[in-house]
Amino acid sequence: MTTNILGRALSPADLAASGDFLALTLSHPEHLTPFSCVLTDGTVAEIWDTGVICLTPVQHGKTDVVISSGVHGNETAPIELCAALCIDVLTGKLQLKQRTLFLFGNPPAINAGKRELVDNLNRLFSGHHSKADGEPGWERQRAAKLEQYVLRFYQAGGEGRERLLYDLHTAIRGSQFEKFAVYPFLHGKPWNKTQLRFLHACGVETFLLMQTPASTFSYFGAQSCGAHAFTLELGKVRPFGENDMSRFAACDLMLRALVTDRLPELAEFDESKFNFFVVSRAVNKQTEQFELCFARNIENFSQFPLGTVLARDGAIEYRVDEPGEAIIFPNADVAIGQRAMLLVKPVSIAGQLCD
Ligand SMILES: [Zn+2]
Which is the CATH superfamily of the domain at 12-271? Predict the structure, then answer.
């Protein structure tokens, strides 16, 4: 067993008693031999790998739910939220009523207190893990396995069931909107109104509607699995134990209601209660000279006057060229060729929704 960031070591034999699947995962961060156990209410818990637990209640509803956290290892609040949820299910405090797959995406990075060890795991899905040359690092191997686990989970549930995937994150920087969701590109299909209503109840009012394929986990869920899939940015990165979990209470409550099949009546959809954005430009880093021209602690969704220089990359200059254009995910420290910033603009989605 590995000493882990929580200071709580756990062996497989102890899982049922404590329910601490995160501690078990972080005690065996790179590999865990599969095993299964049956909970007191008859729910079958299958551990497929480190950070991968598939829960099948005896009687279950028509929804298959994937809840992931720790795809970026230092994004601790969602990890703590999911760890507590696992404990309550495994110890019988919460009666699971939907098939649920919990994933802790990057256990070695969680132990290291880092976003990633080698590669950004959330840029490796939909086959991108196999596109680079050379010996694949930990994240490339993990992305390939996570794809297989998610496919296996949905396939075992069967066709015709509702598939959901919520990939929980916190952002490196603060945000003008504390919580927001990235809604992956649907290739022209309408956005789902019920999902927007559910996520609004989770405290997510702001949505970035993507218009191109991506290498993210949520795009993989949407495109390759036919799931309603979202990247949820729930707040700001902080170390373990320093999160104000009350800021995640609505999300926690709704996820618990979802997996126990006790969802309350959701408020009707009202576009005026949401902010929708689309990407106007993606800025990729092209040279080592790439620099951002605003304060390092700038918040996501910050806006600037027309003409403001936002970044320089060698001879290239990026300026605000549309009113309302805002920046999101700026990061000058990415590898050459990777996305260093997105520019987004507000849109209306009236007429592009389905139930
Ligand atoms: Zn993240």
Answer: Zn peptidases (3.40.630.10)
